[in-house]
Amino acid sequence: MNEGLKIGITCYPSLGGSGVVATELGKLLAERGHQVHFITHNIPFRLGSSFQKNIHYHEVEVNDYYVFRYPPYDLSLASKMAQVANLQQLDLLHVHYAVPHAVCAYLAKQMAHPDLKVVTTLHGTDITVLAQDESLKDMIRFAINKSDAVTAVSKDLIRETRELLDIERPIDLTYNFVDKRVYYPRDCSQLRSEFAYPFEKIMMHISNFRPVKRVSDVVDVFARVQEKVASRLVFVGEGPDMPKVQCKIREMGLEDRVHFLGKQDEIAQVISLADCLLLPSEKESFGLVALEAMACGVPTIGSEAGGIPELVTHGETGFLAPIGETETMAEYAIQLLSQPMLAQKMREACLHRARHVFCNDLIAREYEKIYYRVLGKEVEVPKPVC
Ligand code: GMT
Fold first, then answer.
1. Distance, CA 115 to ligand 1 centroid (Å)?
2. Closest residue (by CA) to atom 21 of ligand 1?
3. If you average pLDDT over residues 246-261, what whole number do you get?
4. What gap in Å lies between CA 241 and CA 244, rounded to an integer?
5. Do domains 6-177+359-374 and 189-357 have the same CATH topology?
6. What is the predicted pLDDT for the residue at 1?
């Protein structure tokens, strides 16, 4: 490749899959020789604190002058984006999650040097939830239409964006990815014995415990499965629905079979413990956690919501059922957990699919191609090593 690009990245630094994807993408781009400038209100948690070549961090400081009832974060962000763009002569701003980042990038573009381009990546609830809000809808449509390129993490999200916002402009599909150097089946025989006897299976759910995740369905599925297959349920993460779920588990008398690990950093290590992941979400534009599980050889049993069917191939890398059909999900889980040959076949299919379809090199290359396109540069992007 020729000389690298100068790319500003804005995302939510401390929560959610969109922040994870944006940060991991920034790290990959830096490794590929680009100068990456994170413009966020905190250091993205996946960035770590040690020095990394080609990565820069610019903190957005919010003015909280006493006349403000609400400190104007959005304005401070737009202003910082423009400052960094001018000072560093950025080629482009790549913003993750439309609200407010795409709007701020539009404003920054008006203030910055004339060649600055904006790429917006839609992640899910910025469309499926926020674009349903009449007070935000027109602004989100405006920011999308004003971006130089727009990407979305699944075909389903592209469809929904078009339908909800009546948008006709092209939207590129860029699936999420996992770093194969981090997400692979880890040896966890020792750790496993902390949670289950050797003859027991482990089902796992990882989320932010918000209502869209339907965590209560996880308990219903597990309640049925453990009647037929000796098993344990491990929860990772925390969030607003946690007390409700804990209460349900107590009422159903399942507390001896369920473990709560809270938030965990070493997700690859933890997921490797599982025999299957449960993801019965109401909405899920992609479902990054199912990809992380897949890359560790763990099939997902979940709902057909949003982009999940684009990620999990029903019958090959997991099983899917309509949203809320916990009985069907439980039947699939029993099938998977009680048939070692099926489990092994699915495990191999998971590893193959994660490595070849959602490979970090492949997706980083897709983004690079979009960057060069909006910049009007013809650059040969090296073939991916997947
Ligand atoms: O709204 C959320 O659930 C958070 C959001 C985020 O910022 O992580 O998640 C969305 O983006 C992820 C990364 O692209 C996707 O894997 C999630 O499926 C998506 N969440 C929803 O669509 C509910």
1. 31
2. 284
3. 97
4. 5
5. yes
6. 47
Pick the CATH number of 189-357 from 3.40.50.720, 3.40.50.2000, 3.40.980.10, 3.10.310.30: 3.40.50.2000
Q: What is the DSSP string of 21-65?
A: HHHHHHHHHHHTT-EEEEEESS--GGG-SS--TTEEEEE------
Q: Which of 45, 123, 209, 213 to mutate to test the pocket of ligand 1 (most atoms within 8 A of CB)?
A: 123
Which CATH code, of 3.40.50.2000, 3.30.420.200, 3.20.20.190, 3.40.50.970, is assigned to 6-177+359-374?
A: 3.40.50.2000
> Taking 70 as the threshold, does the pLDDT of residue 2 lie above it?
no
Q: Where exactly are the structural domains of the chain?
A: 6-177+359-374, 189-357
Mean pLDDT of the chain: 95
21 CB within 6 A, ligand 1:
yes
At residue 50, the pLDDT reads 76
**Residue written as tokens 């939830």?**
129
DSSP string, 249-264: HHHTT-GGGEEE--S-
Q: Is the pLDDT of residue 54 over 80?
A: yes
pTM exceeding 0.85? yes
pLDDT reading at 15 higher than 80: no
Cβ contacts of residue 314 below 8 Å, gap of 6+? Answer: 320
As a whole number, mean pLDDT of residues 267-291 equals: 97
